[in-house]
Amino acid sequence: MRSNHETALNKRARNRKGTVTKNEKTLQEKHSHLHEVPRRSKTEYTAKGAFNALIPVLKRAISDAGYQAPTPIQEQAIPHLLKGRDVLGCAQTGTGKTAAFMLPTLQHLVQNSGKPSPGKPRVLVVTPTRELAAQIGDNIAIYGRYTRVSHAVIYGGVGQQRQVAKLKRGQDIVVATPGRLLDLMRQRHLSLNAIEIFVLDEADRMLDMGFLPDIRRVIAKLPKKRQTLFFSATMAPPVVALAQTLVHDAVRISINPEQPTVEKIAQKVLFVEKRNKNLLLISLLSDTRMDRVIVFTRMKHTANRVTEKLNRAGISATAIHGDKSQSVRTQALSGFKRGKIRVLVATDVAARGIDVDNISHVINYDMPEEPEMYVHRIGRTGRAGLEGSAISFCSVEERGMLDSVEALIHKKVPIDPDHRYHSEAARIAINTLSAAGSGFRRQWKPRRNRSANRHR
User: Fold this and answer.
1) Which tens digit of pLDDT belongs to each residue from 368-393?
2) Is residue 8 part of a domain?
3) Residue 233 shares a structural domain with residue 297
4) What is the pLDDT of residue 351?
5) Mean pLDDT of 407-416
6) Residue 57 in domain
7) Final residue in a domain of this structure, among 254, 281, 314
8) Bridge-partner residues for 229, per DSSP?
9) Contact predicate 175/153, CB 8 Å
10) Residues 31-51: pLDDT tens digits?
């Protein structure tokens, strides 16, 4: 409900043709961080489950966003987070992890209001990619639309001037990628000594060897007294063990740990010779029902080549990967969201940050080297409980990668041999795999890429 102080101030101000006294201005500044909700019936803000514990402004925001009931990760995480507990949360991609940690965070800021100092945010969210950082920023704007909570999103690949200017104005929440975050800290534009809540999103990826040194540098600058949250779609036991050394008395929440892929996604694998992948892709895309498609490749140059082949075939496509400038990536995502572009060709750098509604299909042009990435890729479709479809191309050279994926998800991906470019050699390799057992897996086990682009 609107603050009585503010209502009185506005009335007196209108009566004096907009003039505001010094005392009234002081009162306005004092209450600038209090939430405000127009007068409405309480029945308009009814909520279910864990959402009942949220304050009215947040209930109204999620109601406007179409949230009817909390997802499993939200139902389990929100009560613990509202109590100030550290949390390690694991759930499938597309099940609402961002809302699970951001709604309690916004409630903390509203209930403990205070104007942030320049360059000293109260909440820090660290993410692996620019796209994911931008998406979290969009979600903060949606959930916090009826509050006065401020936020800034900072990442590399663009000039830092606007980001620095925003930090100087004081921000409650900063969402950042690790490279730009450390750069601004070194330049003394940003200090972490006022952080009350620290969120590490996509923790499995961020704590991989390529990101771990940067994360440790960030953690070393945080106050010892803080709330720490780790969220991800997948958390292998070694990553959990590492994360637990960085949190205090954390609650571990795992949703469907034995079924890491979204159940409503129809999955299948098409065996094909490497040289025929482009022909198979174009053939599949002749089906007009595949109206909004993400194609994943392992290499940036492959993404560029695939995009060129599709456009020559009359299929509107654009590529998004780490070598593209931020403005180009933003433009590509915007065109894809608006339906002007039918196919988005992406490397795994984009798998964690693409949040587009109604993606009909995900196609793995290349099998991922890391099996966990398969979960993130196919999670772009079938979001929020909707049905989706994931198709994987697999050549003989990629059989070990498919084997690793099937070991992770604890089931075989159904085979579709009914296409013009079916590779019988790759199909026979299935029997070879069964006979060879673990020896075959060792032969094909991919080498993990330990390098990390800090400004992604």
Assistant:
1) 988 878 887 888 887 655 678 999 99
2) no
3) no
4) 57
5) 89
6) no
7) 254
8) 87, 199
9) yes
10) 344 344 444 434 456 678 999
- The predicted model gives 190-212 an average pLDDT of 85
- The count of structural domains within the chain is 2
Structure tokens at 17: 């043709």
- Looking at per-residue confidence, does 164 or 434 come out higher? 164
- Same domain for 310 and 203: no
Q: List CB contacts of 406: < 8 A, sequence separation 6 or more.
A: 412, 413
Greatest C-alpha distance within the chain: 88
pLDDT digits (tens, 9 = 90+) for 243-257: 877 888 899 998 764
* pLDDT for the residue 262: 56
pTM of the model: 0.67
Q: pLDDT tens digits for 225-277? A: 999 998 877 777 777 777 877 888 899 998 764 444 456 789 999 999 999 99
Check if the beta carbon of residue 425 is closer than 8 Å to that of residue 276: no
Distance between alpha carbon 223 and the CA centroid of its chain, in Å?
25
C-beta neighbour count of 274 within 10 angstroms:
15
Strand 317-320 relative to strand 123-126, pairing? unpaired
Name the nearest CA neighbour of 326 among 184, 157, 107, 111. Answer: 157
Please check whether residue 17 lies inside any domain of the structure.
no
Q: Output the six-digit token pair for 428.
A: 């026979």
**Residue 88: strand, helix, or coil:** strand
CATH number of the domain encompassing residue 365: 3.40.50.300
Do both 236 and 312 map to the same domain?
no
Buried b (16+ CB within 10 A) or exposed e, 70-98: bbbbbbbbbebbbeebbbbbbbbbbbbbb
Using alpha carbons only, how large is the chain's radius of gyration in Å? 24
Q: What percentage of the chain's residues is helix, strand, coil (to nearest 5)?
A: 45, 15, 40
- Expressed as residue numbers, the domain containing 383 is 265-444
Is the Cβ–Cβ distance between 435 and 428 less than 8 Å?
Answer: no
Of 227, 254, 281, which closes a domain? 254
- Give, in degrees to the nearest 5, the angle at Cα 255 between 201 and 222: 25
Q: Residue 429 has which token pair?
A: 């390799």
Instruction: Collect contacts of 283-286 with beta carbons under 8 A, ≥24 apart.
Output: 283/419, 283/420, 283/421, 284/363, 284/391, 284/419, 285/310, 285/313, 285/315, 285/342, 285/343
37 within some domain:
no
Report helix, strand or coil for 128: coil
